[in-house]
Amino acid sequence: MLILSIDTSTTVCSTALHQNGTLLGCYELFTERTSASMLTTLINNVVEHTGHELNQLDAVAVAKGPGSYTGLRIGVSTAKGLCYALDKPLLAINTLAAMTEQLRAYYPDTHILCPMIDARRMEVYCALYKTDGKEVFSTSAKIIDENSFDEWLVQNPLVFFGDGAKKCQAILGAHSNAVFPDVVVSPSARTVGKLATAAFANGQFEDVATFEPFYLKDFMTTQPRKAVR
């Protein structure tokens, strides 16, 4: 089982190759914005440098979101293009679930994990997971204030991480059950591929023709200002 994974949910553009769940290689590029040319280069690198060819793939996996509108479109479009060209199945993994995989092993089962991706102003994309990976609060766009996560914080320690956790720490950092690891956790194809291995085994394939990214909310644009005469 050879799976190519792609994550372009945020400013981190990454690709990984897993064989039977074992990571063979991973390329990550930290930039201000992701481009299709960058992603194509990383895909070619991770496949070639691990001694494989694209036609040997059994599936292509992509982080479906939430995250950057433009980034998700690039990642999903590229993944679908590969699936069409190679006649391979598509696997789609929740970006927040894949982020959680990076920390699950480091906390006891009394803790709840809260991956966060920065949205606009005081808003984040987030979800809550147990340390066994089970989702206990579904992915949502949440505005952070002093009452955020009250019902959870009174019951369990909550571990906030990801680039959206910074704005949360300024408001909830004093709470005794709020935990903010001193480590940067960014979305990565490494853990997308890990979850994709299980999805492949369970036959959780997407319809390549109709699949769309999980944007969570509509794309917002800034209206151009009228010229001052």
UniProtKB/TrEMBL annotation:
EC number(s) stated in the UniProt entry for this protein: 2.3.1.234
UniProt xrefs under CDD domains: ASKHA_NBD_TsaB
Stored Pfam families: TsaD
Transmembrane segment boundaries: none
The species this protein was found in: Spirosoma soli
Matching InterPro entries: ATPase_NBD, Gcp-like_dom, T6A_TsaB
NCBIfam families for this protein: T6A_YeaZ
PANTHER family (alphabetical): TRNA N6-ADENOSINE THREONYLCARBAMOYLTRANSFERASE, TRNA THREONYLCARBAMOYLADENOSINE BIOSYNTHESIS PROTEIN TSAB
Designated name of the protein: tRNA (Adenosine(37)-N6)-threonylcarbamoyltransferase complex dimerization subunit type 1 TsaB
GO-annotated molecular function: tRNA N(6)-L-threonylcarbamoyladenine synthase activity
This protein's record includes keyword Transferase: yes
SUPFAM superfamilies according to UniProt: Actin-like ATPase domain (SSF53067)
Keyword line: Acyltransferase, Transferase
Residue intervals of the Gcp-like domain: 32-144
Statement: the UniProt record of this protein carries the keyword Transferase: yes
